[in-house]
Amino acid sequence: MNLFTDIRSLVIESLDTMVSDGTLPAGLDLRNVAVEPPRDVAHGDMATNAAMVLAKPAKKKPRDIAEALAVKLASDDRVTSAEVAGPGFLNLRLAASVWQGIPKSVLGAGLDFGRSKMGQGLKVNVEYVSANPTGPLHVGHTRGAVFGDALASLLDFAGYDVTREYYINDGGGQVDVLARSVYLRYLEAHGQEVAFPDGTYPGDYLIDTGKALKAKVGDAYVDQPEDVWLQEVRTFSTDAMMELIRADLKSLGVVMDKFYSEKSLYGTGRIEAAIGELDDKGLIYEGVLEPPKGKKPEDWEPREQTLFKSTEHGDDVDRPVKKSDGAWTYFAPDIAYHYDKVDRGFDMLIDVFGADHGGYVKRMKAAVSALSDGRVPLDIKLTQLVKLFKDGQEFKMSKRAGTFVTLRDVVDLVGADVTRFVMLTRKNDASLDFDFSKVLEQSKDNPVFYVQYANARICSTLRKASEAGIVTDDATLGAADLSLLDDAAQLSVAKKLAEWPRLVDIAARTHEPHRVAFYLYDLASDLHGLYHLGKSNDDLRFVNTSSQSATHAKLALARAVSIVISAGLGILGVNPAQEMR
């Protein structure tokens, strides 16, 4: 049930009637007619822009259309008033019975309330994290992991067929560096003194990997030349790091559907096939690029390379796919990887990158556009940096990785639920301050506590009601006389519940899961406000044994809030608290 969609349907039906009776001309495009909450709640419950968007094509004054539409809408039992405002906006007020029916709808649907068919089963690939397999995930990866996972869950809730995917960057030279670093730890495990040259990975996390390599091969690689052990240690080390990364992700509640290896693209003809596809479209040529902006001409060495005409698909400049020495650029396997995604039949692709990949957006979009002939959209979401604080001061934790704070450090300190919720309290492209003191604070200023406390408060209320002999199962509460919810504060909570299905659709359409976190905070605030009113007004107290029917109605409203909070937290990957300690 989406009440905003229902009222929009009423508006469209009324406009169709106005066409039939000659008030409006035929053939109007109604796609931009919207029904939304008004900017100022004092103006009403909903507002429509119908008169504003139809005035010009209808060749009529907006107010004239709005006034005629108001008459049509006011004849519906759900609408108590339709008032024209400003140049032609139409503000609607709905009957109390409409809002009183919302808790019953929530209780009837359960956690599926707000679940949408908007996605129509379209196949979406969400690629996120995709860190180099050279060590444990750091706090920057944490934000991308949480954002990508919540976005995937949100799209699933909105009716898409979602695949969560991790691209293993195991095809480049950084994995050779990893192998050499593990080899040094292997020698160390054999009692040798070792030094880590610049560019290697000195983190303690490789000590166990070096010992594991020793346990596997004994002294077979000791003091052997690199060509003897590099490829075997490379594979061994990558597998060990991916096992570590999987464990890190699991600690955060992230489970991938697919891990795709970059290395699998090399020597298999897949890169050649992708570039060949672009060549067949006339988009590959031999040429010389202009010097990059900011470089002096004497610093630039013009050289002929194999280039992709990415400018024909929205990029600023054409991009090299093969170097002058015949080696592939980093861009080439990425093209092949996305070609594989297109070939697997996905209808939409989403990549979640760190902010340092901003320069990669246009070229990657151009490649997917070219490979799919514009059929498959690619949305690239960038996640900004996370700054760590404690008590307002920049916080430095022990760095087991040697150079950075790990995902596991954060999760071990505050827990997965807190980590995930806090990572979604800002839009992905805004920087985020993560204060370890504040995220554990039990106050309204801590959004994760405030939302969890609202659900725990409801669960506690339901337990107390049950202990008092009041039946509190969902079927009983759903059958309550909800017309008894007649106070403005109660109706305000019901109105906020009614926004949930619309919020899901908007958040899914814009690929913005942080909207869910914001909504849950507002819903929790309304619930807490109503709870506190009950302390001074017995009529608003959730459990009032003097009137069982009124108690059932109020508990139905509270339980509906709990259901929506649980559903929203489920999308964010957070477990709803049943009690607070």
UniProtKB/TrEMBL annotation:
A cellular component term, taken from the record's GO annotations: cytoplasm
Root EC class: ligase
Start and end residues of each DALR anticodon binding domain: 451-580
Location in or out of the cell: Cytoplasm
E.C. number: 6.1.1.19
Predominant subcellular localization, coarse grouping: cytoplasm
SMART domains assigned: Arg_tRNA_synt_N, DALR_1
GO biological process terms on file: arginyl-tRNA aminoacylation
Motif ('HIGH' region): 131-141
Catalytic activity: tRNA(Arg) + L-arginine + ATP = L-arginyl-tRNA(Arg) + AMP + diphosphate
Assigned keywords, A-Z: Aminoacyl-tRNA synthetase, ATP-binding, Cytoplasm, Ligase, Nucleotide-binding, Protein biosynthesis
Domain Arginyl tRNA synthetase N-terminal: 5-94
Highest taxon, organism lineage: Bacteria
CDD domains on file: ArgRS_core (cd00671)
Membership in a protein family: Belongs to the class-I aminoacyl-tRNA synthetase family.
Quaternary data: Monomer.
HAMAP family: Arg_tRNA_synth
Name of the featured protein: Arginine--tRNA ligase
